[in-house]
Amino acid sequence: GEDVEQSLFLSVREGDSSVINCTYTDSSSTYLYWYKQEPGAGLQLLTYIFSNMDMKQDQRLTVLLNKKDKHLSLRIADTQTGDSAIYFCATLGRANNLFFGTGTRLTVIP
Amino acid sequence: SQTIHQWPATLVQPVGSPLSLECTVEGTSNPNLYWYRQAAGRGLQLLFYSVGIGQISSEVPQNLSASRPQDRQFILSSKKLLLSDSGFYLCAWSVDRGAHGYTFGSGTRLTVV
User: Fold this and answer.
1) With contacts defined as CB-CB under 8 Å, which chain B residues touch A85?
2) Tally of CA atoms within 13 A in the half-sphere of B5 that contains its CB
């Protein structure tokens, strides 16, 4: 089955950039997503990228896709304390279902 | 607009008791529906998905079952809960899985004691 991997933890200082990385195994993934989960809440779709793109920018968020290496990253510029959350990478793969990584807990230090 | 409701928000149940978690979607027809579980310190695991009334696919063998008695209703059940069933359960729906991904409910935190 599909395997999606992320680092479990990331800490950054307020105002710095955060980079959250993700690797996946299914080369046929058509869409790749980043979701944000705040404490005790459901998942909120932040952004997505189609597999024929290598970059997408949306305000403070930049998504980079290296399809050859099956590597996806999310960069958050000027990270704020409100960005503290768990960030999930997900791929649209087998049977058109989403497969999620383990999530990266981002802690922003004031 | 489309909304998804999931309840209850929290639940504490003894081992061996039954479980019923309900999820309903409003504002859309014939959605694809999903149940995910997020265990403590772990990622999201797809438990069940449904593409229509009465159609349930199970991703992993387990102590749980799912049903879809109506187009926009998805129910997660167990006859006898185990300690290992504790976790955060999330319902989600999609129509166009491409550009929009899934929309998630607010989740149910289940603690089996």
Assistant:
1) none
2) 9
